[in-house]
Amino acid sequence: MRKKIVILFLILATAFLACGFAPKEEKSYIKWVDCNVPYQVLQRAYELDVKYHDSDKVEFDFEKSLAYLATKNGNKFNVKTDLKRLGELEKALLNDKKIDDFYGGNKYYKYYVESYEAIFSQFIGEYIDTSTNEKCYGLKNYHPIAANFWYSHYDDFGVSRSYGFKRKHLGHDIMGSVGTPIVAVEDGIITDIGWNKYGGWRLGIRSLDNKRSYYYAHLRKGHPYAENIKNGDKVAAGQVIGYLGVTGYSAKEDVNMKCKPHLHIGMQLIFDECQIQGPKEIWIDMYQITKFLSSNRAKVVKDGKNYKSINLKRSID
Ligand SMILES: [Zn+2]
C-alpha cells in the first residue's frame, strides 16, 4: 500500500513538473535604483561628453562616467570630490586609458552602467535644430516647464503623504502658475491619459526604448491637456502636452486640491514589465535631473486657447 502511494506521488510529481509548474529560476533584472547625482556633476560630465564627442583619442561616455563615480563613491555623491574625480578621469583618458579599464569586471560598475543608462540613455545625442536645420550633438531632453514661465522647487522626493493610505511622495513637485504650458521631457508614447484620484488630470509618457515612463499630474482644471492628444500618440521632446494646475486627491473628476498649483513629475524605470505597477515600481528623484535640464527649455507661442512649441531640437535616432 505504502509503495503504491509513493509510486502515485512520483507519477503526479513528474506530471506536475512536466506541465511547466517547475519552480522557475528567478529572472535577473535590476530591482532598485537611487539617483542622487548633483546637477553640477551631471553638468560637468555632460560638458566632457560633448567636448570629446568628435575625438578619435578619448572616448568619454556620460552614463559610464557616472557609473565610474558611483563605483568609487558607493553612489553617494559629493560635488567637490566628484568634480575633482571627473578631472582625474579626464586626465587618465587623455593618457590612453579607456573608461572600462578601471572597473570593467566589477559587478557594481555593471549595475551602475545599466542603471544610469536606463535613466539617461536618451538625454544626450544627435539632433536637428529646427530653427537652423543644423545637425548638432548635445542635450536634447527638455525641462518640463516651458521657457519664460516661472517655477520654484526643492527636493521633496520621499517625504510622506497621507491621502487614502500612508505613502511616500515618489515624484517631484514644481510650483508654478495655473495654465503654464508643460512639455514632454523626452520623445515617447502617451499612456494613461485621464483622471486618477491621486494625480487628478494626469498622463504618462513611455520612452521609445521602453525603459522609462514619465508621469505628469495635477494638470489644469477644465483644460488639462494639449489639443487632440490621446493614448498611443507619439510626442516629441519639448512638445506641449498639457497645462499646470492643481487637480487631484478626489474620486470625483475635474476637482481642485487645496494646495498651491504645481506639476508633479515622476520618472519610473522599467527593467521588467512586472515593475510597471505595484510594489515593484522604481521611481527616480527628478530634482537634480530637472536642475540639469533647466538649460534646455522649450520656447512656446500662444495659439488660440493653447500653446505650441517652436524651434525644437528634433532627435535623430
Ligand atoms: Zn507631487
Detailed description of the structure:
This protein is α+β, with helices and mostly antiparallel strands and 317 residues long. The protein is built from seven helices and 16 strands. The protein folds into two domains: 82 residues, no CATH class; 152 residues, Glucose Permease (Domain IIA). The strands form five sheets. Strands 5, 7, 8, 9, 10, 12 and 13 form a seven-stranded antiparallel beta sheet that branches. The model has no long low-confidence stretch (mean pLDDT 92). Zinc ion binds next to loops.
Keywords:
27% helix; binds zinc ion; 3-stranded antiparallel β-sheet; 317 residues; 24% strand; 7-stranded antiparallel β-sheet; alpha+beta; Glucose Permease (Domain IIA)
CATH topology of the largest domain: Glucose Permease (Domain IIA)
Mean pLDDT: 92
CATH class categorisation of the largest domain: Mainly Beta
- Please identify, by name, the CATH architecture of the largest domain: Distorted Sandwich
Bound molecules: zinc ion
In which range does the helix fraction lie?
A: 25-40%
Series of secondary-structure elements, N-terminal to C-terminal: HHHHHHEEEEEEEEEEEEEHEEE
Overall 3D shape: globular
Span between termini: 70 Å
Strand count, sense and barrel status of the largest sheet are: 7 strands, antiparallel
The Cα radius of gyration reads 23 Å
Corresponding CATH superfamily of the largest domain: Glucose Permease (Domain IIA)
- Count all strands and give the number: 16
- Helix/strand/pairing class, anyone? alpha+beta
How much of the sequence is in beta strands? 15-25%
Q: How many independent structural domains?
A: 2
What low-confidence regions span 5 or more consecutive residues with pLDDT below 50? none
Number of helices: 7
